[in-house]
Amino acid sequence: MSRSHRTSTHEADSAVELNPLFSRPGESTIFPRFTIPEGESLPSTAYQVVHDEAMLDGNSRLNLATFVGTWMEAEASKLYAETFDKNMIDKDEYPQTAQIETRCWRMLADLWNAPDAAKTVGASTIGSSEACMLGGLALKRRWQHARRSAGRSADKPNLVLSSAVQVCWEKFCNYWDVEARFVPVSKEHQMLDGHDLDRYVDENTIGVVAIMGVTYTGVYEPVEKISAALDEIQARRGLDIPIHVDGASGAMIAPFLQPDTVWDFRLPRVASINTSGHKYGLVYPGLGWIIWRDEEALPEDLIFHVSYLGGDMPTFALNFSRPGAQVLLQYYLFLRLGFAGYKSVQATSRDVALFLSGEIGAMEPFTLWSDGSDIPVFAWQLADGHTANWDLHHLSERLRMNGWLVPAYPLPEGLGEITVQRIVVRNGFTRDLASSFLSDLKKEVAYLDALTAPMPDGGQTQAFHH
Ligand SMILES: *Cc1c(COP(=O)(O)O)cnc(C)c1O
Asked: What angle do CA 306, 307, 308 make, to 5 degrees?
């Protein structure tokens, strides 16, 4: 049909506003899906149609797969609505938001025990992925400078990381031509712990990534041990290799729940740390942070300058425009919760995780991989020999019928033959909801256990949100 013959979804008709909702044009007909509609619609019509379609998404509060914030209190929502027009890059137009951004990362530098918070450099980002890209780029550029000034080749950079890294690190290596040297996880070494590091690093190693809160299982990599292994390598081989800590979730848990774990700027080898403001920073999606120990860790030639109150403001980011509201929400939470409030929120999530992992670990069909005592995230596998009739993918589908999203996925390279299921406990997943989840889990396990023949394959299509 040619454009001129199409009928408008809304004939201009003032009476239409009087039509009952759901019987107006556009509500009683179908909007085109892949072409822009010919004409206008009433705001309330367009709103209702989009609202209703979004309703078909899962309920985010029952999403036990995601690390990302799904609840904030009413005052935060109000603040969000008042500030969603702010563009983070317009430092000149929104100087106060720019100031608040700086205050936030200075607070994080202090929280992560920077020896001299005034010397640190930090930035907000759209999430940890962008923050990791920036962290990786700084490592690479620093290494390039050192190599070139020594008259050596800077052609073949590599980065050493666990095979259990989040996908953003594979992206970093792919997009910026850095060889990824994966240390595979295994039964003996379920995470990067410094063993055999000697075999992976050389003069072309730009850095080692340590993860505080492995996405697959929630466990911390022992940054202190990794650092000690690198100290030993430096003493023997003269290689001075920095660490970037990917603290996407753990950097907002460890300071509150495991203050004695040494993983942050207390270790001189830690050059930079990132976190997701929208994970255990407790803000809605769209916020990450990265802090460098000092200006030496972030080469000056990566920095661009934007106008700021007639002067200039250094920036290091992949995006130009980006929402500023999330930064204000982070500041709101820092003021609202303080250290004590964060500690209490995170401790509550950990308690729910420990309760649930205790109950699930005690069920005959399951064996725990982790219990949620590092970050409030834990994973389990089907106990060896329990059944040949069903697997965790089937259980995941059954739970979905009750509204719960609990992904099943294979562990990374090295343990890829093992499938686990994982729960991320977040603020808002109460003990009460956890009990409801547990009864649904027991009900579905009983259902599957009562099967007398194997379930058909095909439960394996679920993507893992890592
Ligand atoms: C979630 C996560 C990321 C990616 O963070 P986004 O904020 O989703 O971009 C990177 N690393 C780890 C360890 C993560 O858990």
From this structure: 115
- Residue 62 lies inside a defined structural domain of this protein: no
Q: Which atom of ligand 1 is nearest to the CA of 165?
A: 13
DSSP states of 119-184: G-EEEEESSHHHHHHHHHHHHHHHHHHHHHHTT---S--EEEEETT--HHHHHHHHHTT-EEEEE-
Question: Are 241 and 311 within one domain?
Answer: yes
Ligand 1 centroid – CA 360 distance (Å): 26
Q: Which of 166, 167, 284, 426 to mutate to test the pocket of ligand 1 (most atoms within 8 A of CB)?
A: 166
Domain around 281? 78-333
**Tokens linked to 456:** 């058909």
Where does ligand 1 bind, in terms of residues with CB under 6 Å?
Answer: 67, 127-129, 132, 166, 168, 211, 213, 215, 246, 248-249, 276, 288
Is pTM beyond 0.85? Reply is yes
pLDDT tens over the chain, length 466 residues: 344 444 444 444 555 667 777 777 666 667 888 999 888 888 888 898 899 999 998 888 899 999 999 999 999 999 999 999 999 988 888 899 999 999 999 999 999 999 998 899 999 999 999 999 999 999 999 999 999 999 999 999 999 999 999 999 999 999 999 999 999 999 899 899 999 999 999 999 999 999 999 999 999 999 999 999 999 999 999 999 999 999 999 999 999 999 999 999 999 999 999 999 999 999 999 999 999 999 999 999 999 888 777 778 888 999 999 999 999 999 999 999 999 999 999 999 999 999 999 999 999 999 999 999 999 999 999 999 999 999 999 999 999 999 999 999 999 988 999 999 999 999 999 999 999 999 999 999 999 999 988 888 755 544 444 4
